[in-house]
Amino acid sequence: MKYLAAYLLLTIGGNTAPSAADVSALLATVGVETESERVEALIAQLAGKDINELIAEGSSKLASVPAGGASAAAAPAAGGAAAAAEKAEEKKEEAKEESDDDMGFGLFD
Fold it and tell me: Where does the signal sequence lie (predicted)?
């Protein structure tokens, strides 16, 4: 991700085709060590491609990814009765514990 971020910063800064050396130099200015193989692999994958088109394509793909909220909402509805019974038991147990906590002694008695 840091290599891609550096690449994007360079393109925003006006360098339309950043090289591996450009990315490494930018990251070196902030004290980040780079792995040349990974930087070169990124440059090879992005060579000849318009970064704005890639971002637009990725955004359209992300729009089709489900958020997963529906399955989480369905779970409480399915086990509602069991959950209510468990809560009732927990409340009874908590009430017993609370009465034993002070054992007749108050903090300021």
Answer: none
